[in-house]
Amino acid sequence: MLAARLRRVRDLTLFEINDDEYLVVACDSDGGIGAKAGDVVQVTAREVGIFALRVPLFEVLACGAMPFLVVDCLSMEMEQYGEVIIAAIREYAAQAGLTDDVQFTGSTEENVPTIQTGIGVSVLGVVKRDGLRMGTARAGDTVACAGVPKSGPKYQLGTDDPALLSLPELMYLRASTRVNDILPVGSRGVRYEAMQLAASAGLRFEALTQPEVDMHQSAGPSTCALFTAAAVDVEALRDELSTPVFVIGRVIQ
Q: 2-131, superfamily in CATH?
């Protein structure tokens, strides 16, 4: 059965294509965030597109996979509003190498007028079995948070906020041989994700007594990501990234 070739790892669904490769699927949704009259958090259509894509794209990249398809499902009209969101999605995805029209698909709502923004985005990627990063943290690794956890409506988010982890810097961490595991932070906050990161490696997370970042604040559209590395490498990476980096603890047996 095909279901026997499926498994869930953290927030990702993996399908075993063959003995060497996995298909990786990540998804996220946003509602009430946008420029329509009924939106609770007011942001531009362009920001809607970028923030909606960030979570699934970051998750696919962080696990070591190469994204190849973006699916955007918009619960609003294409003309003037939806088309701006889709253009922003394509512009942002291009930074990760998705540039062909065939790499994007989706749907819009053309039958019912809407007063509130709703969007779901899925990203598909492929990864070699030995390229999967999940569970690669090592006992004794320092756990660091790149970026500041933020989410609306508490915070007014903007794509130009220097406190947010950028896509290029996530890809920099992914390419670094000094970094072991990487995990984008979502709505459950830094502490929850740190515990998930440690558990996937059969380890435990030991938090600092007074970490310099809010461990429970939602990171909404993955405004930050956790990564593990030797302490000396974390300090070196802190100097190399423009995104703020905070040490939050370590993983232990």
A: PurM-like, N-terminal domain (3.30.1330.10)
